[in-house]
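Annex B. Sample input.
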Amino acid sequence: MKCLRLWPACFLLIPVACSSEPEANEAAANDTAPVDAPNTHAFNTSSGALNVDYAQYLSKHDVVYNKPNTNPAYGLTVGNGRMGAMVWSNNGLTMQVSGVDSSEQTAFSAGIVNLFTNPGMDTGYSTFSQRLSLYDGWLTTRYDSNRTVTIMGAPNSEVMGIHVEDSRGGVQSIALDLSLWDLSNLGNSGDVPDLNTWKTVTTYADGSGAGISRGQTDAKNFGYTLAASVEGANFSTQTINGSKVRLNITPSSSYTIWITCATRLNAPNHDSVAQAKNLLNGAKSKGYATTLASYKDWWHAQWQKSFVQYSGMSGDADYLENFYYLSLYAITAGAYGNYPFHFINGVFRSTNDDTKWSNSYWYWNQRDVYNSFLSSNRADIMNVFNYMHSRNFDALKSYTQTRYGIDGIWVPETMGWDGNARGTINSDYTKNIYSTGTEAALNMYAQYRYTNDGNYLRNTAYPFMREVAKFYTAKLSRDGAGKYYMDVSNSHETYWNVRNAITDLVSVRKLFPIAIRTASSLGLDANLRSQWQTVLDNLVPYSNDGTDYLPHQPPISQTRNNENVAAELIWPYSVTGIGSPDYQMALNTWNHRPFPYGNVWANDAIQAARLGLGNQTYDGMKLMLAKYQNYPNGFTNNTNGVFEYWGVHLSATNESLLQSYNDKIRVFPALPNDSQFVGRFTLLAEGGFLVSSEKEANEIKYVGIKSLYGNGAKVVNPWGTQEVRVRRVSDNAVIATTSSSEISFATAANTVYVVERTAKPLSSYSYSNITGTPNQSAKYLSGTSSSLGISATSPPDTGKYEGEKAALVNCNASDDNAASNLQEVINLREGSSLSFSNVIAGGTLDIRYCTRNNPGRLGLYVNGALNQRVDFPSTDTWSGTYATKTVSVNIPKGATLKLQYDSGGAGANIDYIQVR
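Annex B, continued. Sample output.
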């Protein structure tokens, strides 16, 4: 059969015969010759979703390493919903394991797992491939054709497995070590009640397996046991030292090592050792084959919930799409614990227990991680985040009374797992932020809007909204003219102790109408409704200068952080956007925002999509990856956050394809202006509508809608004023026709509708199947140093090495538009260093830097030996203006160069080095 290959090369749309009967469409899927793709559609009118071969399509987004990776920071990720691991090559395969509920805010990960053999599994081979298969959720490592290691898990559990197929002869020994790093310097970044219990380690090694435990006396019932056992081979166990145990496995051609991060929180009687043994015995009893099948089924079901294609733009949009699916995988892999996927910890790390910002959940950062999951049809994931706030209803209400003397709820911006405000009230950045409660309440209401769960609205979302509205009612002041205003608060973290913070005014304007409407529909709180309406009718306007919205009432306060606070009106508060009366001012505000893409959590691209700025949305997503995606596994080295930009990318992509925040379904509102761009999606809209559409060659073909709950639908006419009709698929009845800019219609639950042009209906296209071809190597984002995967042969080494790509010790990358690759390395102090490994040979080294010291002074080390002290004359700045220091040094091929702040040194910020 001849197939039509579209852009990109790895995407195939295989057309089939068109029929008004969905059964005929599906039956013909593989036996009809293809036609031109612009004349096809892939809407399955039976299921109400796009017809996608997920296994083949997602395979084009697999992350592939074609040579072993020895850098822990580059480790590939694998997870099962509650437990995850980052995997790299070091004396066999090594992985750092973490469980989402193991400690407060997942501050402490579980430990290190190392599988090694004699002779080494990673020796004596000619071909190597390591693949993260998104569709199946597993990570496979292959050495030639006689060694395969598969890492997977029991779905949505605290058990993962390492399955080994090793047909080599002469394997003398196999061992698995479970260990911890040095805990002597462990800091209390997790805000745990007693740090000593996290430094106290116990072990066991018996006939059932071996394990290490810590946090066993944590007063809040956190703590865990990392343990392992073996299926399919005999083994013995031993304790190596106080923080390492070993399984000695009898050589076998096929065996499975089961690993658990059994948490006290989820264990009967909080006994994590007994739970570990039970979980391992259960996994062995169930067996590898059965568990693997369940695991794959779980991941397959995850992917069936939605679909996104965002391709073209000379391949760069395809890279953005790849990152979309990798992000969806990474967050889902840790999204099903009792507590949320922490924005900097998640279930993946390669930094031992060395993290910051682990003492609480910053709402600003967590919303970046989570707010895409409703439109991706994963309300169960969003519920984990929402539940952390609703489960702390009583604690929040009590603390609000204690702190403010107000009967209501104030939510700390930096909230601990149990609702505590310790991370908020001791910080000038956060202690006077009031708007977080509104965000939490609105996300609960959004969960209701997407799921139509009336019980959730009545029992969870509305009570929380009511208490937040009561807090604001009490906190507002009223002037002599009867106008309500906010006397003093923070306009988020950036402007402290100001009047009429825009975040407070928008909180009232967004929350109160919803609270009034909901209370009325539930027949509750008539007196409160009246109070709230009075506040709304008399609230002071947002401050503006006639062109832009301002973050608070002037004069503008000192800047303390780099948030674009005035743009919060656009997202997440959603009070303005495409078609809004104040659109021009919102657009001006976004265009003039003071800190464009100013940090790893910047949500500028989402806001661009809400304004219908397709090119800016695309450029913004690409810029965020250029600045922050430093490693080939998708990770960043930015210590201000880890997973925020993954979540922002998910939201920006979804919002560019589908918007429904204002009770209007709007398809393809913010696509880049490129005739080669191809967009397709099945996503969920507010009101419970599964929406599908396709755009190709600048043509939107149709809008398919499956009504899940029978709510009324309103669709913005994607063809302007062309006549459209709404056709009910089950009987082809046309239920509405219009040439207006919007079309509204009643729906029935579990019924599929098509909005189509009268002049070019869906039936004018041939039915098709969306598929793809597996990825086999690394991918690169043009014009950047960002890549996904590792090629067997690296790109030509020019000798230029970016500072932010180095191994950083006690220093960090920071944004600077004047720096190469838009980042520099800052905060070098005594003991700080940057290490550049495997550099080319040369005799000269150029170091691009800036410093306000006169001079800066760092030690230059070659392969660990001090070569010389390098002085860096002052540039009178720590950013923006750079100079180049050139030194003579003999650099052998493959050397490691290190710049280190030694005793007697002085700091300099480093942009990059160039070996010549």
